[in-house]
């Protein structure tokens, strides 16, 4: 079975994922605004935070509404899940606070403008060229799948049937 320590550890893993996720959302949105609007980091951070603050707070409220009631369960279930609930909710609140304060400050000071001169020399330039080629090929393949959905849905159905047949043979 599961022990209290295992549930607390699971809560920590989930909480760390949430903590990192909020910061990633902030950094990626700032980078997108810098690239699309060709803004310097500070202005891009301000615009980005106006766009995503509501979403970050909303996600925190929804997750709190899901996990906070677990802290008030009665009996042995409540004792076991209380640690889990408190771990997830407290780390999620901390995550949102950091995503709304520290992450934007770091973005505004550490990110470099994307429209400045970029290097295509050396190992980094070679990596960037290879990555861009791979990204273009991937976009072409995804476009092909989107334009021919029937073919790929049939292929998916065949794979599903083959999986079911192999499962039944076990």
Describe the structure.
Helix 1 runs antiparallel to helix 2 and helix 2 packs antiparallel against helix 3. The chain has two domains: 117 residues, Multidrug efflux transporter AcrB transmembrane fold, CATH 1.20.1640; 52 residues, no CATH class. It is 84% helix and 0% strand. The relative contact order is 0.12. With 170 residues, it is an all-alpha fold. GO terms for molecular function: xenobiotic transmembrane transporter activity. Keywords: Membrane, Transmembrane, Transmembrane helix.
Q: Flag low-confidence runs.
A: none
CATH class of the largest domain: Mainly Alpha
The share of residues in extended strands comes to under 5%
Write the H/E string, N to C: HHHHHH
How many helical elements? 6
Structural class: mainly alpha
> Could you say how many structural domains there are in total?
2
Distance between the termini: 26 Å
Shape: flat
CATH fold description of the largest domain: Multidrug efflux transporter AcrB transmembrane fold
Overall pLDDT: 88
Could you state the oligomeric state of the chains shown? single chain
- Tell me the CATH architecture of the largest domain: Up-down Bundle
* Radius of gyration from the alpha-carbon trace, in angstroms: 23 Å
Name the helicity range.
over 70%
Count every beta strand, where a strand is a DSSP E run of 2 or more residues.
Answer: 0
Major beta sheet, specifics? none
Name of the CATH homologous superfamily of the largest domain: Multidrug efflux transporter AcrB transmembrane domain
Protein name: Multidrug efflux RND transporter permease subunit
GO molecular function: xenobiotic transmembrane transporter activity
InterPro entries: Acrflvin-R (IPR001036)
Keywords: Membrane, Transmembrane, Transmembrane helix
């Amino acid at each position: 079975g599961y022990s209290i320590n295992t549930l607390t550890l699971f809560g920590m893993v989930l909480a760390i994922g949430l903590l990192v996720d909020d910061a990633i959302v902030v950094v990626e949105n700032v980078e997108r605004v810098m690239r699309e609007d060709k803004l310097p980091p500070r202005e891009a951070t301000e615009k980005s935070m106006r766009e995503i603050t509501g979403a970050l707070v909303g996600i925190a409220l929804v997750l709190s509404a899901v996990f906070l009631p677990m802290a008030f369960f009665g009996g042995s279930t409540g004792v076991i899940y209380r640690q889990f609930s408190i771990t997830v909710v407290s780390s999620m609140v901390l995550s949102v606070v950091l995503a709304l304060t520290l992450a934007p400050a770091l973005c505004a000071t550490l990110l470099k403008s994307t429209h400045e001169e970029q290097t295509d020399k050396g190992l980094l330039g070679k990596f960037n060229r290879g990555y861009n080629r791979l990204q273009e090929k991937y976009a072409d393949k995804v476009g092909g799948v989107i334009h021919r959905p029937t073919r790929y849905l049939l292929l998916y159905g065949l794979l599903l049937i083959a999986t079911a047949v192999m499962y039944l043979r076990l």
